[in-house]
Amino acid sequence: MKGIKWQLERQRLLEQAKEEAKSELRAELQKETDEKTSSKKEETTIKQQLLILHYMGILKNIDLPNTKKAKLLSTLLNKTEQDIREVLTYIEGKKEESKKIKSKDNLEFVKKHFEKLGMNEAIEKINKDLENFKFL
Question: Disulfide-capable partner of 81 in 10, 13, 18, 74 (CB 3.0 to 4.6 Å)?
């Protein structure tokens, strides 16, 4: 008799453990689903995309005139050549012209992503630009 009671109790405890494990798994899956749906990827603008390439030093290493560079980058970034060429023209321009591209919002956006990756050299360049510009 004791053997049967022990087996029944064991079976009951196993079923209870299974149900608890299922419940925990459901909760974990729901949490992952919620995180995925709530953290939709931010859309990056052409200015932000080119600023990322600029601060990584990639733009200066493309040894082409801006028109050809824009043609190449338009294929890569799925943006128009004209939009890219406009940004390329002003990205290294005079302070006032460059502000159109290097706005505080754009610089902060790029900096945030570089910080996540620990790209300290690029972050220093951005900080320098943030200090050089007077934002309203």
Answer: 74
